UniProtKB/TrEMBL annotation:
<dbReference type="InterPro" id="IPR036761">
    <property type="entry name" value="TTHA0802/YceI-like_sf"/>
</dbReference>
<feature type="signal peptide">
    <location>
        <begin position="1"/>
        <end position="21"/>
    </location>
</feature>
<protein>
    <submittedName>
        <fullName>Polyisoprenoid-binding protein YceI</fullName>
    </submittedName>
</protein>
<feature type="domain" description="Lipid/polyisoprenoid-binding YceI-like">
    <location>
        <begin position="48"/>
        <end position="217"/>
    </location>
</feature>
<dbReference type="Pfam" id="PF04264">
    <property type="entry name" value="YceI"/>
</dbReference>
<dbReference type="InterPro" id="IPR007372">
    <property type="entry name" value="Lipid/polyisoprenoid-bd_YceI"/>
</dbReference>
<keyword id="KW-0732">Signal</keyword>
């Protein structure tokens, strides 16, 4: 009877040891899988390239409603960065210095430019900077991207969408885009038919065109 009990106890002990040895590799395997999953969240070539304010520029254009009396000029970026992941543009933010507004001849102190800086237009003393913050980028083809961003002017933020052509190397990114906005959405109401009646030929178009040329470097 004693020998039989010993045999049963030995059998139970053997089964327990066998079960324990089978479970241990499974724990290690699960741990390895968890580590691999965590690492996968951090893989990829992610870089931030800083805006070169000397090589970046925005060309602006506005006109009367009938297309006459067109005005154009330049404005410059103060700082910003573009985010690149796996060789593609995926995000970024740029800041525009509204005090750098120029006319088409690069004049900064004249009737036109001073008017653009006053409350009729961009109220630059109160709102010296505007920003463009990219929220989403979708590929159109290898060179062109569809960009969705938040544009802030005069402290008002609205979503905008535009296409950009990008040239990306290990050291730089060049991005060119054309953005057309309805200025009244940012409270730029001067001679807009939406707010003023009987302006006749003095009515100004609500559209402002921006030709954006950005260079960012590592």
């Amino acid at each position: 009877m004693t020998n039989q009990k010993l045999s049963i106890c030995s059998l139970i002990l053997f089964i327990a040891i066998l079960a324990s040895s089978c479970r241990e590799p499974q724990k290690k395997e699960n741990k390895n899988v968890a580590q691999a999953s965590t690492l996968s969240l951090h893989t990829g070539d992610e870089r931030y390239l800083m805006i070169d304010s000397k090589e970046s520029v925005i060309k602006w254009k506005g006109s009367s409603l009938n297309g006459l009396n067109a005005q154009a000029g330049y404005i410059y970026l103060s700082k910003g960065e573009l985010r690149i992941e796996n060789g593609q543009l995926v995000g970024g933010t740029v800041e525009v210095d509204m005090n750098t507004i120029e006319d088409k001849n690069h004049g900064r102190d004249n009737k036109l430019v001073n008017h653009l800086k006053d409350p009729d237009f961009f109220e630059v003393k109160r709102f010296p900077f505007s920003t463009i913050s990219i929220t989403r980028v979708n590929s159109v083809n290898s060179d062109h991207k569809q960009v969705t961003a938040n544009l802030t002017i005069k402290g008002i933020t609205k979503p905008v969408a535009f296409q950009t052509k990008t040239e990306i190397t290990d050291e730089t990114i060049k991005a060119n885009a054309k953005l057309v906005i309805d200025r009244t959405k940012w409270d730029v109401r001067y001679k807009s038919a939406k707010f003023y009646a009987n302006l006749a030929n003095q009515t100004m178009s609500d559209s402002i065109e921006f030709d954006i040329q950005i260079v960012a470097k590592k």
